[in-house]
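Hypothesis: this fold can be encoded by more than one sequence.
Test: take the structure tokens below, design a sequence, compare later.
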């Protein structure tokens, strides 16, 4: 068994304008690190265009059409203060969705051990009918719901270690006891959600971190809250919202994680997947805005996935 990498050149064509932190250089940095010989054994596939019917499991059709209608023929359009679209954004957004769906297909069919989707734009802030925080469609939620609809996976788990709380995924999972959402994130910080008291129907596990916390506090949050809840949930597939903006060098937050912390978290989640669901795990890129920190963190994350799947 191997690890699958799903990505596409169109992710670099999603133009967010000068000075925007969610910029094309992010995906270029990720592609460059994964070209190293360390990753020669990765199976690589191009992300297909996602199915709009699948997107409608997470977003109402009126919202999907509203996004399509505001796509510019040239220049940039701001959907909100932070979220920008450009003429080639539609393809990137749909291929991000398609990447997650393809990864789920391959993992559920046991054609690969696990998968990493190197995509942009990110998705975990996108609420059912609202784009925000650089996110347009919630790709990881679509991927999870695809596993349920197409393969009968009953219990879907998303663990999110992006430094910003995934309010969109939480909102989509909130009232369904068979959907688990766990998150470590800095608080207070955008988007302002993610308190410990936000528990849904007992399926939401938030573990907020304080500004200045580092790997010790992060690992304790994982050990004390995230991992026990995830093990008790016994997922049929584990999905990771893999944001690397909790890195100590990231400009958008104040958490002091280093590459070894991301490697450790990935290993813990891979072990849960191995115990609960025959190793079925799909990871999707979310944030990470220091290019060097992003590239190195993705590198260790994918290497752990490869080791886990071998």
């Amino acid at each position: 068994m191997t690890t699958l990498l799903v990505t596409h050149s169109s992710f670099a064509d999603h133009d967010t304008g000068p000075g925007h932190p969610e910029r094309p250089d992010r995906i270029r940095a990720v592609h460059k690190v994964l070209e190293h010989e360390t990753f020669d054994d990765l199976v690589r596939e191009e992300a297909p265009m996602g199915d709009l019917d699948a997107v409608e499991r997470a977003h109402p059709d009126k919202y999907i059409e509203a996004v399509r209608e505001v796509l510019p023929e040239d220049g940039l359009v701001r959907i909100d203060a932070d979220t920008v679209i450009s003429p080639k954004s539609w393809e990137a957004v749909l291929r991000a969705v398609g990447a997650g769906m393809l990864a789920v297909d391959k993992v559920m069919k046991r054609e690969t051990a696990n998968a990493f989707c190197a995509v942009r734009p990110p998705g975990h802030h996108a609420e059912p009918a609202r784009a925000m925080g650089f996110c347009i469609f919630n790709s990881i939620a679509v991927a999870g719901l695809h596993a349920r609809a197409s393969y009968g996976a009953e219990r879907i788990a998303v663990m999110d270690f992006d430094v910003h709380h995934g309010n969109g995924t939480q909102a989509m999972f909130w009232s369904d006891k068979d959907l688990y959402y766990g998150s470590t994130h800095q608080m207070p910080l955008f988007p302002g959600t993610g308190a410990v008291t936000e528990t849904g129907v007992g399926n939401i596990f938030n573990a907020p971190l304080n500004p200045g916390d580092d790997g010790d506090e992060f690992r304790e949050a994982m050990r004390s809250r995230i991992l026990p809840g995830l093990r008790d949930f016994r997922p049929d597939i584990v999905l990771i919202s893999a944001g690397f903006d909790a890195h100590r060098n990231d400009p958008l937050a104040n958490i002091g994680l280093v590459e070894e912390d991301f490697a450790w978290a990935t290993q813990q989640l891979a072990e849960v997947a191995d115990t609960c669901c025959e190793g079925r795990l799909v990871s999707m890129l979310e944030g990470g805005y220091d290019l060097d920190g992003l590239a190195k963190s993705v590198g260790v994350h994918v290497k752990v996935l490869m080791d886990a799947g071998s």
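The chain has a mean pLDDT of 98. The domain at 3-309 is CATH 3.40.800.20 (Arginase; Chain A).
Hypothesis status: open.
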